[in-house]
Task: inverse folding
């Protein structure tokens, strides 16, 4: 599915510190991992503690952040992924796959 160049650029652009995604292990336990754009987010998903992924996925944090970036399609995909109930490394691999596939798709739209 093609994405309008302007929208793709906006979704891929860095956001302010206040709008960045801060990874937590649990409530009140922040990690040193911060994503300022969707590409960084996809990279951090590969290595951050899997408990952080389960924490954020369970709360719907990922799809809310991606929606804030302006990516309704990816947000919907993350809702579906959350409802699948994946845990542990299966959750990680699916998150990485979905996010990185979308990043590549957006990058292709930008380079057109």
Result:
């Amino acid at each position: 599915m093609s994405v309008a160049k302007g929208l793709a650029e906006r979704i891929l652009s860095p956001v302010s510190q206040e709008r960045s995604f801060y990874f937590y292990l649990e409530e009140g336990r922040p990690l040193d991992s911060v994503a300022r754009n969707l590409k960084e987010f996809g990279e951090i998903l590969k290595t951050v503690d899997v408990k952080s992924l389960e924490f954020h996925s369970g709360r719907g944090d990922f799809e809310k952040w991606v929606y804030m970036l302006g990516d309704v399609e990816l947000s919907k995909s993350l809702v579906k992924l959350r409802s699948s109930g994946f845990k542990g490394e299966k959750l990680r691999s699916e998150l990485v796959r979905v996010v990185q596939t979308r990043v590549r798709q957006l990058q292709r739209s930008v380079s057109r």
Summary: The chain has a mean pLDDT of 96.
